[in-house]
Design a protein that fits this description.
Blueprint (H helix, E strand, L loop, with lengths): L6 E5 L7 H9 L4 E5 L7 H9 L4 H4 L2 E5 L4 H13 L8 E4 L4 H18 L9 E5 L4 H12 L3 E6 L4 H14 L3 E5 L3 H8 L4 E4 L10 H4 L7 E4 L16 E4 L6 E3 L1 H21 L5 E2 L1 H11 L3
Parallel strand pairs: 1-2, 1-3, 3-4, 4-12, 5-6, 5-8, 6-7, 8-9, 9-11
Antiparallel strand pairs: 10-11
Length: about 300
């Protein structure tokens, strides 16, 4: 008797798929990964329906779509279109994780929450969370997660305030969460934002130093900084790659480094991929599901 294969259709609007995502899919247990590049949003429905009708409903449970790319809104739109294209009992599971950023943001928030618990800070409810790099997917998704968890979220603009104001409005329109926008275009303005922060996330472009040891002197309330930048110079000075709640030298600020986040991120992405073919029905996964999984993997 032949056992049907576990198949993942990986789609991206970009010219190529990240080897990281492909490796993770195979490590998660998929037998075959079919890669589709330069996929337009308008093509998603037909791709999905070509897949669901080519396998029996039982084999459809072993078939999934992975949505990659580099755009948060586009990836979520593709997920919505894919879900709407299903015609039960003919259906596949779908998981959106553009550039691995949803699982990265979920892991960053979860590992930080774990460190906060160890410090006696509790959770994110009523905390002021400041995000540098909020225009990227990691920072943006982290902001939405924290706002949903009851935090006051501040999106900081490096180049201008207008861009993060638009970002905050987009989050309110799509997710129903309120985020503040702050001007971080000068050292003085950045330090004004830091002065009110309980928690900081550094999710800016790789190799960009965002915060210095001198900045921390202006942040008397700050208790934790998470930095997902693994390329020197790191985003937050004094936070080492492997730090998992260790105090930054000369401060009472706990640092969470990129590798501490990365450990949970990899486990989270693999876990969600496995959920796609092991579930008794179909699952449709985005950053909110990634956060629930990351919290569990972090022991929360």
């Amino acid at each position: 008797m032949t056992t049907s294969k576990k198949i993942l259709h990986a789609i991206t609007p970009l010219k190529q798929m990240s080897p990281f995502d492909v490796n993770m899919a195979y490590d998660a247990g998929f037998d075959h990964v079919a890669i589709y590049t330069e996929v337009e949003t308008s093509q998603v429905r037909s791709l999905v329906q070509d897949s669901i009708f080519s396998r029996s409903p039982d084999d459809g449970k072993k078939t999934g779509f992975f949505i990659a790319g580099r755009d948060m809104a586009q990836s979520l739109e593709m997920l919505d279109i894919a879900k709407a294209a299903m015609l039960p009992p003919y259906a596949n599971s779908v998981f959106a994780d553009p550039a691995g950023s949803f699982t990265t943001s979920a892991a960053m928030v979860a590992v930080t929450e774990r460190a906060m618990g160890r410090l006696g800070m509790g959770n994110f409810k009523n905390k002021r969370v400041v995000i540098f790099g909020a225009m990227g997917i990691v920072g943006g998704a982290a902001g939405v997660i924290c706002a949903q968890e009851g935090a006051t979220v501040v999106l900081v603009g490096h180049r201008d305030k207008a861009s993060v104001e638009k970002r905050a409005q987009d989050f309110k329109d799509r997710y129903g969460v309120a985020c503040e926008a702050a001007d971080g275009t000068t050292t003085e303005l950045r330090r004004e934002v830091l002065a009110q922060a309980d928690v900081v996330f550094c999710a800016a472009r790789a190799g960009v130093r965002v915060l210095t040891l001198d900045d921390y002197k202006h942040a008397s309330k700050l208790k934790a900084i998470a930095d997902v930048n693994a390329v020197p110079p790191l985003g937050a000075e004094g936070v080492d790659l492997t730090d998992d709640g260790k105090y930054i030298d000369g401060t009472e600020i706990a640092g969470i480094g990129a590798l501490a986040v990365g450990d949970i991120k990899s486990l989270c992405q693999r876990d969600l991929l496995r959920q796609m073919y092991s579930s008794q029905g179909q699952v449709y996964l985005d950053f909110t599901h990634a956060y629930a999984t990351a919290r569990r993997l972090a022991g929360l």
